[in-house]
Amino acid sequence: MPTPHINAPDGAFAPAVLMPGDPKRAERIAQMLMPDCEKVSDVRGIGGFTGEYEGKPLSVMASGMGQPSLSIYATELFTQYGVKRIIRVGTCGGISPKVKVGDVVVGLGAHTDSSINTRLVPGVHLAATASWELAEAAVTRAREKELPYHVGPIISRDRFYGNDPKDTERLAELGTLGVEMEGAALYMLAAQHGAQALTVLTVSDHLLDSSQDMSPEDRETRFTGALELAVAAAHC
Ligand code: HPA
Hints:
Layout: E1 16-19, H1 23-33, E2 38-41, E3 48-53, E4 56-61, H2 67-80, E5 85-94, E6 104-112, H3 132-144, E7 149-156, H4 165-173, E8 178-180, H5 183-192, E9 196-206, H6 216-234
Parallel strand pairs: 1-4, 1-5, 5-9, 6-7, 7-8
Antiparallel strand pairs: 2-3, 3-4, 5-8, 6-9
Helix pairs in contact: 2-5, 3-6
The structure holds hypoxanthine (HPA).
């Protein structure tokens, strides 16, 4: 049944959903992977697409930006549409000196400066963690394709602007690979609903090394590499 934010009929989504932030990118991913896909939802310009990739059902739907937006779509997909896996595909800012622009980051866990996960068990700082099964499938594909990848913690921040660079340096010292804005909420929602989640990110810029940059063409090619990892996780 349609929900407040998804106007698709029951059964319109595949068990696995790829979830970029940007609705235009969601449409491009869907058309690239599944030329015969169907648009199943279009509330607020957030298109949902379902088709088959290599003979298996797959859906693509954007999250919008930030944890509150992603939480709305992920909750409705898990609770109303029987979705079992959400794989976020997006970009992150590099933090760790090991990470270079264009590399792929698999977020095994997600720190957050948001309070979004704090009320579930009062007094407990829950570990927002990816599904190991999905992470393993993504990493196996990265090795097969010889793509530069990193696996480890990311941080899901509430603010894009206005963060203290000293905090970013401290996060780097603690082994944090990159910064984005959605992963921690996604991981906790998957835990709450007995589902699986993963975040696969292309490093689009480096917060502590602005000499690194990536052309728009590189951005698209590298993004395709990350997408291969995400599809491997979706169908493992
Ligand atoms: N924060 C900072 N830089 C970034 C981000 C972010 O969320 N995503 C891509 N580059």
